[in-house]
Fold each of these.
Amino acid sequence: QVQLLESGGGSVQAGGSLRLSCAASGGTNGRTMAWFRQAPGKEREGVARIYTGSGNTYYADSVKGRFTISRDNAKRTVYLQMDSLKTEDTAMYYCAATRAGQSVGLSFTAFTYWGQGTQVTVSS
């Protein structure tokens, strides 16, 4: 069983930066970790994912070049550095993880474990 705890959300003006953290109780190594987000009235969408074994990453087009996902396996933590934030980035951000040994894409059905979410609000 893996428990995920997100932190780092908050309010920021457009153009600003935030860094989200996701601490995984069951460890991060050898699984896919990802960030998803959901704005009010919209479907949950994948933002970025990392396979913690190789470090291979993938980003949604909407955040490419602005967000960076990374991991520290020793600290059992995955990060999402968000720069050049836009008002449309406002959403609840969720950390997700697969079972160990799985390398998957950004489909939310592929992820087994989910955090409670952290709110990110970007104002103009």
Amino acid sequence: QVQLVESGGGLVQAGGSLRLSCAASGRTFRSAAMGWFRQAPGKEREFVAAVTWGGGNTYYTDSVKGRFSISRDNDKNTVALQMNSLKPGDTAVYYCAASFVAELPTDLGLYDSWGRGTQVTVSS
């Protein structure tokens, strides 16, 4: 397992940008697929984006395609989520997660380790 800590959340106006970062500890980070999820009040946690262990492949939920970008730096043990053109509907707590059982998982049940989350609020 890895320990994950998210940062970079905050309050932003619609149309603005935020960059989330997830710092990982543990030697196994390089072998994990990494994902970002989000959970809005009263809703289930949902998949946002994922990146393979090497960073060569990514996948996004349809609602963020073209606006969000996931990347990782295995030398620094970090994964980032660049969020542009933010909308009020993007408001949620964003979680970083690691998977050691799948290459590019979208199912939260395939993730082994989770951070505590960072709040993103987009005002209209």
Amino acid sequence: QVQLVESGGGSVEAGGSSRLSCVASGVTVNRLCMGWIRQAPGKGREGVAAVDNYGVASYADSVKGRFTISVDSAKNTLYLEMNSVKPDDTAVYYCVADGGVRCEWETAPYFHNRGQGTQLTVSS
């Protein structure tokens, strides 16, 4: 059974940094497509970033150059390093995983496995 457990986020001032973590069990993170999606208040889920089993990453234009997705195989953990955060980044962030899919940030909202989410609030 796949289980994804996120942590991190919290409250951050605009321009600051934060890191999200996602510990996976039941799957091996470097053998799947892993990603992050988010949902802001009153909006639908949107893809943020994804990384395939070769380590190739893709990012939404809104976070490119500010966010970095990475995998630690030894810890079976996915990360999202967020720098220069903006109030528009405020959302619940979810870790997602799937196999046999087109592994890009645009498809991440449709991945079959998703964690419970963690809140990031950015104040101006």
Amino acid sequence: QVHLVESGGGSVQAGGSLTLSCSYTSNRNIIVMGWFRQAPGKEREGVASMRPFAGLTYYADSVKGRFTVNQDSAKNTVYLHMTGLEPDDTATYYCAAVLRWVAEPLKGAEYTYWGQGTQVTVSS
């Protein structure tokens, strides 16, 4: 029903920027899309999410002011613009989608569909 493919990961130095892309296909309207990350030995963390039809966005405190989520509906793509990257941002980043309203848009358990992930490495 929903297929997600992330791209744009890579290696940058601290203070640098990266933009991740999540291209999606769906036979139904996606209600919420989120970006998550997981570093080795750490729990998965909700980074940012958006409700496309409501124009609402949500951010984890750890990235607020540095990361921005938006979409290009014509391209069926959601972006995560990351600036001021820090070594602690190093992780595999995943996009996720759900076809219903969710109470906690930064909680991974709320999401049904996941991409394969893209690696982001930030060196000091």
